[in-house]
UniProtKB/TrEMBL annotation:
Organism: Chitiniphilus shinanonensis
Keywords, sorted A to Z: Membrane, Transmembrane, Transmembrane helix
Official protein name in the record: DUF2069 domain-containing protein
Matches recorded under InterPro entries: DUF2069_membrane
Record's keyword annotation contains Membrane: yes
TM regions (residue ranges): 12-33, 66-86, 92-113
Pfam families, alphabetized: DUF2069
Taxonomic lineage of the native organism: Bacteria, Pseudomonadati, Pseudomonadota, Betaproteobacteria, Neisseriales
Length: 125
């Protein structure tokens, strides 16, 4: 593997990890403080809990985790699109942030999975 590819792979890995942590923080802050559906917080804050599932695999650089995370993260993209369409005010802006973060994570995990495929590592000296 070339040195530049290894550097970019590391950056993409940390981009995915930091994006996932930011999405977790956004989901919690959104439903607890910034724009909860009910005063005092909403049960929708639990949507952040499943986001913890891929975190250990992403931290360890497991290619399989990056692969399934690319489909898993689309659930938050869909939720962001739906709430961006139906909500108004700050909640709509937070939904746009959720869309942006989920797209960011999707791109990062797909790039990581692509750059760590076995055929690529065998092809580069």
């Amino acid at each position: 593997m070339s040195a530049s590819l290894a550097i970019w792979r590391g950056r993409v890995q940390w981009g995915a990890i930091l994006g996932l942590i930011a999405l977790i923080a956004l989901c919690l802050a959104w439903e607890l403080w910034w724009a909860p559906l009910r005063a005092g917080g909403s049960v929708l804050m639990l949507k952040a809990v499943p986001l913890l599932l891929p975190l250990p695999g992403l931290l360890k650089g497991r290619r399989y985790t990056y692969q399934w995370c690319s489909m898993f993260i689309l659930l938050w993209f869909i939720e962001g699109v739906m709430r961006g369409w139906s909500d108004s005010g700050i909640s709509q802006w937070l939904a746009l942030g959720e869309i942006a973060l989920s797209v960011w994570i999707f791109v990062m995990v797909v790039l990581y999975a692509r750059w760590t495929r076995p055929s690529l590592e065998q092809a580069t000296p």
